Amino acid sequence: MAVLIGPETKVLCQGMTGRTATFHCGRMLSYGTQLVAGVVPGKGGNRHLDLPVYNHVREAIDATGANATIVFVPPNNAAAAIIEAIEAELPLIVCVTERIPILDMVRVRQALIGTQTRLIGPNSQGILVPGVTQLGVMSTVDASPGRIGIASRSASLTSEIVLQTTQAGLGQSTTIGVGGDPVHGVDLKTCVKLFLDDPDTDGVIVIGEIGGTEEEEAAELISELKPTKPIVALVAGRHAPPERRMGHAGAFASSSGGGTALSKIAALQSAGVVVAPNAATVGETMRKTLAV
């Protein structure tokens, strides 16, 4: 059983006719994802990638039975696209768009209140169930079916850890990129809970980084649940200078003591999480932890 998506997931693409969306939709189709339609206002009635294009999300859902969407809409209009999908009651939205204005994302977060919709992103590389389905821009080259759940704030480190778990003979049950923008949807804590509840996931890897408090919140949940499944974490940014953005939309180290790599590592270790010493050892750390 996969987390969040599976072979039954029927996917819309909002903004499908754009160049980037066209490329990645082609990848998803080749991987076996059930991409059923696009949504592009003003282009309804056309076909793209041999799929129908609709003007509105609700229209596309009624015609195709879609239960998920991926958003490739540019930053200035991305929040409106997400809110349209929320109002259409889609269970899952994945947004790969980066740097959506923060106030726009505040409105998105308000629109999510009281709904059953899960938002992954923005600035997410997506979700991948190896050999089954891909929803997003995540590399599939080194992925392999397995029983390790990966939740990550970092796209580049996700690719590295997927490779390591494959090389360690562990594979992945599901990999989730929660997104790097400061205001986003599903967080690391929620992903950890999903993996702990998944009978086909034997271990969890959390890839964190400086900025925010998601890792500390995940640590609080782990302390409360005291899970028997092993959890391994990596926190990037131990050597990042304070009060300086490190090129990543959400990565900002503060000198006030919160959101630093050291504070996150301490919280995770206190909760019983095994923290890998560096990015090169995460897969092997999980393999050894599982063997204990």
TrEMBL record:
GO CC, alphabetical: succinate-CoA ligase complex (ADP-forming)
Active-site residues (renumbered): 248 (tele-phosphohistidine intermediate)
Class of enzymatic activity (EC top level): ligase
Annotated InterPro entries: Cit_synth/succinyl-CoA_lig_AS (IPR017440), CoA-bd (IPR003781), CoA_lig_alpha (IPR005810), NAD(P)-bd_dom_sf (IPR036291), SUCC_ACL_C (IPR005811), Succinyl-CoA_synth-like (IPR016102)
Keywords in alphabetical order: Ligase, Nucleotide-binding, Tricarboxylic acid cycle
Molecular function per GO: nucleotide binding; succinate-CoA ligase (ADP-forming) activity; succinate-CoA ligase (GDP-forming) activity
Stretches assigned to the CoA-binding domain: 4-100
Biological process according to GO: tricarboxylic acid cycle
SMART domains tied to this protein: CoA_binding (SM00881)
EC number(s) per entry: 6.2.1.5
Keyword Cell cycle: no
Family: Belongs to the succinate/malate CoA ligase alpha subunit family.
Protein name (Swiss-Prot/TrEMBL): Succinyl-CoA synthetase, NAD(P)-binding, alpha subunit
